Structures are given as structure tokens and as C-alpha cells.
Amino acid sequence: MARKQTDSMKKETAAKQDAVSAAEQETPAVVDAALAEKAAPVEEKPKGVGEKKTAAGKKAVSASKKTLPPKKRQPVRKKEASAGGKSVPAAEKAVQPAGEAAPAAEEAVSAAEKPVAGEEKTAFASEETAPATINMNQPRRSIAFIGSECHPFVKTGGLGDVMYALPRELVRLNCDVRVILPRYACIPKEYQDKMIYRGEFYMDLGQTKRNYYVGIMEYIWDGVVYDFIDNEEFFSTGKPYTNLVDDIPKYCFFSKAALAALNYMDWIPDIIHCHDWQAGLVPVYLRTLFKDSPVGRAKSILTIHNLRFQGIYNIPTIRYWSGLPSEVFRMGALQQDWVDANMLKGGLAYADRITTVSGTYAGEIQTSEYGERLEDHLRYHSGKLRGIVNGIDYGMWNPETDPALAANYGLGNVLDHKMENKLALQKELGLEEDTGKFVIGLISRLTNQKGLDLVNAIIPQVMDGNTQVVVLGTGDKQYEDSFRYYEGAYKGSFSACIQYDEARAHRIYAGADALLVPSRFEPCGLTQLNAMRYGTLPIVRETGGLKDTVEPYNEFTGDGNGFTFDRYDAGLLLDAINRAKTLYFANRYHWDEVVQRDMAKDVSWEQSAKQYKDLYLELTPW
Ligand code: ADP
Ligand code: GLC
Q1: pLDDT above 50 for 598
Q2: Would the CB of 522 count as within 6 Å of ligand 2?
Q3: Which residues have CB under 8 Å from 509's CB, separation 6+?
Q4: Quick one: 444 and 335 in the same domain?
């Protein structure tokens, strides 16, 4: 099923043909996406979550649970991938020299290296928590989340966790939340089967001179409404991110379709909360093509989860696919330099507020060391920039109920049962089964961001006969290969799991004694939070959210949550690991105190969700 990279280049060749066949279908054809709401009525009466009125006095329509007759996915675009032979529009030609622009090429590589969770085991019974208790004393606001991944449908990293957990927490704070996602073909069937057809329309896109099918499939779960934007042409590849040649058109389409869908559903949120570059154009569309449409009155927030990925490509291509007016292609907005446009940069300029996922990272990204060439732009917009640290979902990450574990445990019995999990993990991975060994875990995308060159450099010194190392991750070949090499070199003591496996990740958090996160940069980082929740001590570099969430262990006072080092230096990492080992082997009583302190630490979403809610209220002060 996976399309080749070149397929998207062929899209336009089929354009005229398909626009004709589209017009011949009985489905509603909508030319102007901003007016999509006028094109088709909302199918059914609002029910459930969205019975409230928005401040603007408009009825917030929520999905009905009634199933409409099932429709085929994207009925009219099937032929496109194979169509060809027509002349290619000039702007499209600009797409073809893939990797021409250096930053784009670099990003394409890093995006492609992200693993996809979609087809792995993702179901955890504990996720099926009881519907949230809603605090009705809180002012009600409606929020549309727009982003490119969300657990358990599709996840390549922490963004997927946040898109899952934060909406659920906001529901508790009396928010009416709708999460808008692409309906990727890789979303597991069990969720595809639960989706309900919500409607469809056609939308123009950029300078393509075509109308594109936009289907809306809906799934309501624990008070959160998930709307999946359906279009087989853009979302049929096996993983969410492939390369920029495909991803730029894909996320131009997605950003525009998400806003058009809100108009279509007649559900106009108070706030549109966008995430990362894939939704970076949303604030730009909102203030340009959509400004006179109903959704145009919403306020927008753009959250940076990772500044390294920005959606940079040459100006003609982004202009072609986005259809945005010339005025946004200026240095203060989308324009990056004389050649390139930058989708995230545009979003940052037009968003009403910018957030990032920790206070330290909010400061760091305004410096040349961490700013990824956007430091000046971010400093210019610093008045609307805020850092709000991530939390983790306590339903999903709970050692007391986690069905993946060999033995469940809580604060009261961690010291007894953690060892059972250690033994089970050693057995599962073919390591020497010995509770006396110090087990270090590493769960990570294997990329340049994560400090893996430091780890590689010191493995021989770490492997002292009393230490075991377990790596779980996929990514750059160089890291995969070196970890495989170490597995061979230290049989029974080193395990390299080059895979994406949610359940195994849970077992490593539970079975390891310490977890390494020596990142070069880390906007927030969730693995250190998961580790602490499971009584596993983090060993982290003091950067971004790692600095904000892990207090260094102080051997004189006994305070702290883990072991830290500051400069990006292999020797300092080794030193931090050795400090951890010393405490573990020489002073287990104090080690165990830290284990219990970490498990008791509040790393939930509760406080951070309140800060987001305050931000929403600041933007909608009625
Ligand atoms: P990032 O978003 O930069 O990848 P985070 O620490 O924010 O880093 O989030 C990573 C998330 O992905 C965590 O939930 C972690 O448990 C999970 N994860 C990373 N790699 C794997 C893997 N190979 N298998 C299972 N889960 C993984
Ligand atoms: C990004 C960052 C990570 C953060 C996650 C969720 O992928 O790399 O640090 O925790 O987003 O916000």
C-alpha cells in the first residue's frame, strides 16, 4: 500500500481528471474551504459533551453516537497514484528536486527515522479509565487540538503522549475538547472500526486547482472527541512522517482541512491549540484565508514540542501547496531566507500565544545554541512565549495497575516487587538473572538529539560485571548498529532491543534500577517522568525539561530525585552513572529512599493542565 515518494509529485497530473470525476459524484463539492460550513449541514443534533454554548453564542456541536451508513474511505481519488503523463505545473516542479535545501533534507532524514507505534501493541486495559470527573466550578471553554499524532492511534514519541493525556486532563477542568488528527492508514484496525462517519466535503488546496476530498471520522472516548481527517491520497502511507516532499503537501492539506472541518461541523472552539510544525500553518490560515469564516474568531496557541523540526522547504512549493497569500511570505513570518519558507516560523508569528514544554527550554530556544536558527524570531515573540512542563497520564503509567508488568506494585511495596520485575525483565531479554546487578535502561528514539554518542563512548567503562544495560529504541543506523555490537560483546549483560514496543517499555521502566536520558537537548522528555513514577532513578543531562523535572541527588542532605550532569561530555555522563552506582551498591538504604520519593513525586498533568487552562482563559477573558 505504501506509496512511493514520487507519488505525491504525480498528484497534480491526475488533478483535472479527478476534479471532473469528483464533480460527478453525489458527494457535496466545496470549492472554498473557508466556507465549508455552508456546504453541508451537520448531520445530527448535538449530544453529550458539547451541549454548551460557546461564548460567541454559537452552539457547540458535538458528535452524535448514532452511526450513519458506513461510507467508503475517500471514494473518488483512487486513480491518482497511477495517473501520469500530463504536464506538471511549474510550482510542482519545484517539489521535485528533493533534498535541495539543506535544512529540509536534514529534517527529512530525522523525520523518517521516527518509528511508528501504530502497528505495535498499544492497548492497555488501564487506559480505559472511567470517564473523567468534571470540575464544573471551572469556567467552561472549548478547545480544538490539532496535531499529527496521538496515542493510542499513532505515536512516534512524546507528542503522541501529550496529545492523549492533556485533552483528558482538560476535560476534568471543564473544557470541551476535540482532537483533530489525520486518519492515517496505519491507525490500528481496532480504532478504525470504532470510528463513526461524521461527514465529508470537498476543499480546494493551494494552487493545485483541485478539490480534495475531506472525510471526517469520529471517535468519542472518555469525554474527548477525536475527529480524524480522512483522505487516502495524503494519509495512506505506512507511517505518519515519510519525507518532506510528501510531508509538506500532507500537512498543508491537514492544517487547512482541520479548520474547514470545524466550520463544516459548525463547532467553533474558543481556542485552537496546535502542535509542532505539522500544524504550524493553522494560525496562519486562521488569520488569512479563514479570517472571515466562523472559525476565524477562535484564538490560537502553538506549542513547540521540538524546535528541530520546522517544516522548511522552498518558497514556491509551500506557496503552491498552502495557497497562502504573498503577505505571509515575508521575513517576519514564513520566509526563512531567500530560498526557503518555514511553516513553524509562520505559525509562531501568527499564533496568539506560543508555548513550549518546559520553562528551561523556553529560555534555551531563544539562544543560538538551541534556537535552531529561530532564536531571533523567538526572542522577538518572547512576550507571547510561555514554558509549561509536561506531565504523564497516571492512568496509562501506573505500576499498581499496569497490565504489562510481571508484578504490580505501589509506593507501599515497591521494594519487594520491583525485584520481581527486574528478574522477569532479565529473563525476557536473556540477561543473567540476578537481582544484585545494577540495571540501567534507555528508552529512546535513536537520534542525534538523545545523547547516544556519549553513551556509546562509555559503555566499556560502564560494563563492570555488576551492571546490565537494556536499550529499547529505533532510529539512526549508526546507533542501532553500535548497540547491537555491544549486545554481542557483552552477552548476558547488554540487551539491544531495536524495536518499538510499548509493553516492553513499561516492563523496562519497572524492571530497571536507573534510566539514562543524556540528551543533547530535550524540550521536556517524558521517559524520566515515567521512570520516576515506576521507582527507577533517572540519570539525565541538565537541559530543557530534564533540568526542570529531575533534582540532582545531594549526597550530603540526601535530597533529590536522580543523577545529573551539565556539559555535553561523555566523562561527565560516566561520572553521573558512577555516582548512581556508588549509592546503589554502597548505600542501598538511601537509594531506596530516593526510589520512594520519586514514586511519590507529582509528575501528573494536573498542575500543568491548570496552567494551560489559565492561558486559555487569559485569551478568552469573558
Ligand atoms: P521524544 O518525544 O523526543 O521521542 P519523550 O521522552 O518526550 O521523547 O517521549 C518518548 C515517548 O516514547 C515515551 O513515552 C517513551 O516511553 C516512548 N518510546 C520511545 N521509544 C520507544 C520504543 N522504542 N518503544 C516504546 N516506547 C518508546
Ligand atoms: C518532543 C520532545 C520531547 C517532549 C515531547 C512531548 O518530541 O523531543 O522532549 O517531551 O515532544 O512534548
Answers
A1: yes
A2: yes
A3: 397, 441, 443, 515, 527, 530, 531, 533, 534, 536
A4: no
Q: Is residue 537's pLDDT more than 50? A: yes
287 and 166, same domain (yes or no): yes
Q: Over 80: is that where the pLDDT of 29 sits?
A: no
Q: Write out the residue range of the structural domain in which residue 570 sits.
A: 414-606
Query: Minimum-distance ligand to the CA of 517?
Result: 1
Could you tell me the end-to-end alpha-carbon distance of the chain, in angstroms, rounded to an integer? 50
**CATH number, position 579:** 3.40.50.2000
- 364 or 239, greater pLDDT: 364
| 157 and 25, same domain (yes or no) | yes
Asked if pLDDT for residue 17 goes beyond 80, the answer is no
Pocket lined around ligand 1, Cβ cut-off 6 Å: 157-159, 161, 443-445, 472-474, 500-502, 505, 524-527, 530
Pairing state of beta strands 340-342 and 312-314? Answer: antiparallel
Among the atoms of ligand 2, which is closest to the Cα of residue 157? 7
CA atoms of 503 and 520, how far apart (whole Å): 27
Ligand number nearest CA of 309 is 2
- Provide the domain count of the chain: 2
Distance 358 CA to ligand 2 centre (A): 10
pLDDT interval class at 100 (50, 70, 90):
very low
pLDDT band at 79 (very low <50, low <70, confident <90, very high): very low
Kindly state whether residues 452 and 561 are assigned to the same domain: yes
Q: Do 169 and 221 belong together in one domain?
A: yes
What is the model's pLDDT at position 622?
84
State the ligand closest to the CA atom of 605: 2
Quick one: 370 and 501 in the same domain? no
Residue with cell string 485569551: 619
CA geometry: angle 177, 30, 38, nearest 5 deg:
60
Q: What are 42-67's pLDDT values in tens digits?
A: 333 333 323 333 333 333 333 333 33
| pLDDT for the residue 200 | 98
Cβ 162 under 6 angstroms from ligand 2: yes
The rounded Å distance from CA 505 to ligand 1 centre is 9
Could you tell me if 425 and 340 lie in one domain?
Answer: no
Does the residue 104 lie in any domain?
no
Is 70 exceeded by the pLDDT of residue 516? yes
Cα(524)–Cα(387) distance, integer angstroms:
10
75 in a structural domain: no
Q: Residue 19's pLDDT band (boundaries 50, 70, 90)?
A: very low
Q: Is residue 149 part of a domain?
A: yes
Residue 348 and residue 448 share a domain: no
**Ligand 1 atom with minimal separation from the 162 CA:** 7
Residue 108 located in a structural domain: no
Q: How far is CA 209 from CA 32, 165, 264, in A?
A: 11, 39, 21
